Amino acid sequence: GEVIMTDEGPCLVEMNCRAHGGDGNWRPLCRALTGGYSQVEATVDAYLYPEDFAQLPDLPPSPFYASGQEVILVSNSRGKVVSTPGFEVLKNLPSFCVLESGVHAGSEVEYTVDLLTCIGSVILLHPDPEVLKRDIEFLRTLETINGFFVYETKLENLKRPT
Predict the structure, then answer these.
(1) Per-residue pLDDT tens digits for 35-86
(2) Residue 67 and residue 69: Cα distance in Å, rounded?
(3) What SS3 state is found at 105?
(4) Are 30 and 66 a contacting pair, CB within 8 Å?
(5) What PANTHER family does UniProt report for this protein, alphabetically (predicted)?
(6) Is there a contact between 101 and 120 (Cβ–Cβ < 8 Å)?
């Protein structure tokens, strides 16, 4: 929410009464954390199945029923992508759930400096928080070693310095 501090105290401006974005790639994570529902299911129930909506808890469970996270992927390299072997590696992590990226063979990748230059996002989800932690560390290592992409090699980059 957005709050403005006034002379009379805090004033609530906005509570973001909209659906979460991300093309819904977060729904599996939300459903696992809460035990089977997200804002999508809750909204449908509120309009079409009020008796089901009334059964939803007032607060999310604490602790959550699973461990998960959306990880924004960054690029520490740039160039024209030939292939994306690191994405296939990600898909084999024990906590992998969803990968969303517009990068593919032929894409030009720049260094990630903000959200607009990120190379994608991945939803990780696992019952064991240690597995999730290990997979996030591995993912960050892939970023550090530029392990997501194979880039087109330019001959001028291979010449011996004179």
Answers:
(1) 999 999 999 999 999 999 999 999 888 889 999 999 999 999 999 999 999 9
(2) 7
(3) coil
(4) no
(5) ATP-GRASP ENZYME FSQD, FUMIPYRROLE BIOSYNTHESIS PROTEIN C
(6) yes
